[in-house]
Write a structure and sequence with these properties.
single chain, mainly alpha, disordered N terminus
């Protein structure tokens, strides 16, 4: 039972939604993660540099996140969440079909925004369904199951990316396969039951409508998002240690390792957050990321890279689901999609800034200063979260 806030009474809902949405996420992530590890390499292949990687990484995560504000708002206004979840997965799948046609990095820039916009449309309503399909006492476990399944998809997808590359397929053919896999994710989505509520006609996007605790946490989470720049910089950092064929193969294998630890630790991390509190778990995760970023700044061996990618995966397992669960805890059920959307939007804006700063530092000063920036800002976020006063959850 969480120790950093008191637990009010809750009402259980359709538990089958959690494994079904987890399966949808697993299949979609197989598709996405076939693309993810080769994307920064493809950007470089198309003539992009560090600034291009930072721009695509920041804007493709940041701008779609802003969409989550509005998708969450309309889900609560309508009292229905599933239609927006379907629309989001559909837009992502459609966008992936055009990846193989890219001839310059600017094409990837545009398509990546559309592809990630699908995530922006679906995430807040989907996470609201997850939150409403579990009791408060087991909400961390519910989000942990979702993260574990989508990251298992990431393991499978990144492994497939490596095997397809080893089989001699070029980047474009790999993208075609990824797009086809995305279509399969709609099968289990049909069986998900919408958690229908009365339309919230009084719903508001004003920050003043959120609880003070949630507002404080969003500021801290946005600060951490500023530190947590795109994974693509970690891939490019790994590539600096290899040459020839290994310049592609080795980063792919390290990315698989990252996802294995992310998937394996997601459910245990969620369960621990249910028992000792989200704040305690997130403080640990933020602090660990600061150490990982510091390690990437000074790593000098392939053995060190292996350890750092293991820790990097552990950080995501600790932080990713716990943040969503924490926001859900601090939100009213009638406006939970809106609260999650505003949260995702705020960290998305921070991601845009983070990508721009990291890309500029990478281009002008090198990898070391990019990762030192992340380490310092993450440490500040961890200290700020540690200083938050005792928090009370909302039913």
């Amino acid at each position: 039972m969480p120790k950093d806030y008191t637990i009010p009474k809750t009402k259980d809902s359709s538990k089958s939604n959690i494994p079904l949405l987890g399966l949808v996420s697993l299949l979609n992530d197989i598709s996405s993660e076939i693309i993810q590890p080769i994307l920064p390499l493809f950007i470089i292949y198309l003539g992009g540099g560090g600034v291009a990687v930072g721009l695509i990484g920041g804007l493709s995560d940041g701008i779609p996140s802003i969409l989550q504000i509005f998708s969450g708002y309309w889900a609560d206004r309508l009292g229905r969440r599933k239609p927006l979840v379907i629309a989001g997965y559909g837009l992502s799948a459609l966008s992936k079909l055009f990846f193989p046609l890219s001839t310059i990095w600017q094409h990837i820039f545009i398509l990546r925004i559309f592809e990630r916009s699908g995530k922006g449309i679906r995430s807040a309503p989907r996470d609201a369904i997850i939150a409403d399909s579990a009791t408060l006492e087991n909400r961390g476990r519910g989000f942990g199951i979702l993260r574990a399944m989508d990251t298992t998809g990431a393991v499978i997808g990144s492994a497939l990316a490596y095997l397809l590359w080893k089989a001699g397929l070029d980047f474009r053919m790999i993208f075609v396969i990824a797009a086809l896999v995305a279509v399969l994710s709609f099968a289990p989505l049909v069986r998900v039951k919408d958690v229908v509520r009365a339309p919230n006609d009084h719903n508001s996007l004003r920050l003043s409508s959120l609880s003070p605790d949630l507002n404080r946490f969003m500021i801290i989470a946005s600060l951490f998002a500023l530190a947590n720049f795109s994974y693509m910089f970690f891939i490019l950092r790994a590539q600096q240690f290899f040459s020839g064929a290994l310049a592609v193969g080795a980063p792919l294998l390290l990315y698989i390792l990252f996802n294995i630890f992310y998937a394996g630790l997601a459910i245990p991390s969620g369960v621990i957050s249910d028992r000792i509190g989200r704040k305690n778990v997130l403080t640990l995760g933020y602090a660990l990321f600061a150490l990982v970023a510091l390690g990437f700044a000074y790593v000098s061996s392939t053995g060190g890279l292996v350890i750092l990618f293991i820790l990097y995966g552990s950080v995501f397992a600790i932080v990713d689901g716990a943040q969503s669960a924490f926001v859900s805890d601090l939100s009213h059920s009638q406006s939970r999609s809106t609260s999650l959307g505003i949260y995702y939007g705020s960290v998305g804006i921070a991601s845009i800034i983070s990508g721009a700063v990291a890309g500029e530092l990478w281009q002008s000063s090198g990898a070391k200063w990019t990762f030192l920036f992340g380490a310092v800002v993450a440490a500040i976020a961890a200290l700020a979260l540690l200083r938050m006063k005792k928090i009370e959850a909302i039913a």
